[in-house]
């Protein structure tokens, strides 16, 4: 017989999201969490120092910590913290801002009520640091015009949504699951109103217990020190998210009615920070304009909300048949992602067009040297683009294809590229071995090419055929490959094909000199069409890519996508790739490539068992767009200094 009491089965969890708020956590959270066994702190990434501080607090007090590598926003952080709490067996949840606290008896009262009434979303009475009412009862969202007022002043017959602040609320895990948690599209503000609407839709009740008090020092996270003025982020997201709520919940006619009133309601939002702020700074007006414009884009975008208004300028031009297939597939994936508008590079767009994020790949290609006049013009235009990015605080997201700038750049080129690096708010890394040194990063594994090359027939493998294919750069060590191949026995049936465009005439001449007189070597030193690429790789018994430095390689993945084994340098990246796709597909050598390495790899490719095909399931393009959208969103928030 089970003698455990119902009370003993309750396991409440306190979830707090911190963004640069370790000092507030130290001040407030111990007062609320005293005697509570399950506390989850989500350290939404704001820097190394904050992470260390939060870890130290958690170790001191026995809290659990979730450590996302980017700024999750408020709703995203709460969702992450609740996921951890659920894994720890939580039965009820208390969500609390880092600048708020509830005495343990009051918190226990909230928990007891939501454990007993599992369809209840309950909030305490909230006062500010001086004891003045901040939110003492239910609030109304008036659907007629999208304004927010206390329910005590509700006009007769008004259609409203009742809501409570996410600064302090409690609910059962059953209600959390039924309502779906916070909608992360909002990022900051209005996500609590949205949640309350979904609680109502799920048959739940929203209520305030005025006998329990939470103290909320609002200035801790979104006010300006010593002033009533709020942060520009507070203004911008409150203005924008009013429109986002309408886009998600209201019919078209109501959305347009709300939109027409946006300038007035946006001004009301600014006035919550007092009138004196307008004499002290232009920041409120800038936030007003950005918020109103963002709200207009949301309304025009419809239910997809601000996601559809996130315009990304890519550093590549519109793809053509000569474009790297990685770029073409990425362009298609981003264009198919709800919430993203993709613009390919043009100087006009970069200088005067609309975009929210610049996404760079091989940035040096934008200023590579051509004719003397063209080179000067391109550098001047690029410098103007960098200036625009800096003045408008538009973030840069960089995909880290290479760890270092290419050799041979001029002082001017290096200066301009370093300025872009200084404006980079987030990095997309293609594998988890990329060093990011505490910088904001999102992992998006380099996608495969199986679908891309599926249109071409698979040729018969030519025994003994070795192939290098791809752009020929000095760091790829094709010269070393030719020297090593020349030492293989001439009567062993080996052949070598090198297909790709060299980076300079000097490199072309060097390769031709090394291959001269060896009839086993075929050089095709020019652009390789996709059909020729698929044929060259398909005929290879072994694809050899002896790079001096291999951090990411599209050629490796292209070969694996065409089901051909590769020989590559032994490093952390390639060892991880071998484990991922299955041993026998990624063969490795150490030191400088020589003939023995090539012969040994050929022997292993013929004798070592391997799976029928490389396992590339983790590199499907279907998730790439969503992952990039997360990077773009995080970058915009980082440049805005995003916090609740």
Summarize the entry for a quick read:
The chain contains 25 helices and 24 strands.
Topology:
Layout: H1 6-9, E1 12-18, H2 22-33, E2 39-43, H3 48-61, E3 64-66, H4 73-87, E4 92-96, E5 100-102, H5 104-116, E6 120-127, E7 133-135, E8 139-142, E9 147-150, E10 160-163, E11 168-172, H6 173-179, H7 191-201, E12 205-216, H8 219-222, H9 232-249, H10 252-260, H11 262-271, H12 277-280, H13 283-301, E13 310-314, H14 325-335, E14 340-343, H15 347-352, E15 357-360, H16 372-392, E16 396-400, H17 411-422, E17 424-429, E18 441-443, H18 450-453, E19 465-469, H19 478-486, E20 495-499, H20 505-515, E21 521-524, H21 530-539, E22 542-544, H22 554-561, E23 566-569, H23 572-581, E24 586-589, H24 595-607, H25 624-640
Parallel strand pairs: 1-2, 1-4, 2-3, 6-12, 13-14, 13-15, 15-16, 16-17, 17-18, 19-20, 19-22, 20-21, 22-23, 23-24
Antiparallel strand pairs: 4-11, 5-12, 6-7, 6-11, 8-9, 8-10
Describe this structure in words.
The chain has 644 residues and is of the alpha/beta class. It folds into four domains: 6-222, Alpha-Beta Complex (Spore Coat Polysaccharide Biosynthesis Protein SpsA, Chain A), CATH 3.90.550; 232-307, no CATH class; 314-447 and 633-640, no CATH class; 457-619, Glycogen Phosphorylase B (Rossmann fold), CATH 3.40.50.2000. 42% of the residues lie in helices and 18% in strands. The strands form four sheets. Strands 1, 2, 3, 4, 5, 6, 7, 11 and 12 form a nine-stranded mixed β-sheet that branches. A six-stranded parallel β-sheet has the order 14-13-15-16-17-18. Helix 9 runs antiparallel to helix 11 and helix 19 runs parallel beside helix 20.
